[in-house]
Write a structure and sequence with these properties.
Blueprint (H helix, E strand, L loop, with lengths): L6 H8 L14 E8 L6 H16 L1 H7 L7 E8 L5 E10 L2 H12 L12 H14 L6 E7 L9 H7 L5 E8 L6 H9 L7 E4 L5 H13 L14
Parallel strand pairs: 1-2, 1-4, 4-5, 5-6
Antiparallel strand pairs: 2-3
Length: 236
């Protein structure tokens, strides 16, 4: 079970020699990552998700984009979600200004353990919780919520209701749809979840493909708006 990241990889991230921006600089992106820990995710899949996210964060191409020389820093936070009122912060808001900051964040994610494994999929509650976390976070030039999941809403209210009830002005919501069951999660995410200019969905062919999909997703999010992408919109 891929529960942890190889510590040689983590140490390698700190040795990349990537330069952090000099002096005080505003935050360029508040990036909030949400991981699905509902009952459809078993222990092995949960390990692949946490370990995959940690490995993706310290992949050289992602680290280079995160720590872009001359750019303002990124602030990163991570939480897990499942049923209604069942969200838990894994990594509180953390300024990623150096390779060491990124390595420490990845280690925190890789060694975390989920709170519950027996609850349904409350995606509306999950994104609503994300909005409250942005209110606690730094004032950045852009804000992105990055939601991973392997199922559609079967508990609580849908994402569209959350977008009407919570403060989502200026927040882009992207999705990482983990395929493999009898549901087309990617289609549901495109229809009901993504929101904001340039919002997009990346598909993972099961949890074994999660790390690859997350790397691709992070690079796009850290590289700024994609020209020609259709804007997402609030869904009902």
């Amino acid at each position: 079970m891929a529960r942890t990241v190889g510590w040689r990889m983590l140490a390698g991230a700190a040795a990349l020699g990537l330069a952090a921006p000099a002096g005080a600089a505003p935050c360029r992106l508040a990036l909030l990552l949400a991981l699905d820990v509902s009952a459809s995710v078993d222990a092995e899949e949960d390990g692949l998700q946490r370990g995959g996210l940690a490995s993706a964060l310290i992949a050289p191409e992602v680290a280079e984009a995160m720590l872009a020389e001359g750019a303002a820093p990124v602030s990163l936070a991570v939480y897990e979600w499942s049923g209604r009122f069942a969200q838990s912060v894994i990594l509180p808001w953390t300024a990623i200004e150096t390779p060491e900051d990124l390595t420490a964040a990845a280690e925190t994610i890789a060694t975390s353990r989920r709170d519950r494994d027996d609850l349904p999929t409350a995606l509306g509650d999950a994104v609503g919780f994300g909005a409250t976390q942005f209110r606690l976070g730094p004032d950045c030039e852009a804000r992105t919520l990055d939601v991973s999941g392997d199922g559609v809403t079967n508990d609580g209210f849908p994402p569209g209701a959350a977008y009407r009830a919570f403060p989502f002005a200026g927040i882009v919501v992207n999705g990482l749809a983990i395929q493999g069951g009898d549901q087309d999660v990617a289609a549901y995410y495109r229809e009901a979840l993504i929101r904001g200019p340039g919002a997009f969905v990346i598909e993972a062919a099961g949890f074994g493909d999660y790390e690859r999909a997350m790397r691709e997703k992070l690079i796009r999010e850290l590289s700024g708006p994609i020209i020609g992408m259709l804007p997402g919109r609030p869904r009902g």
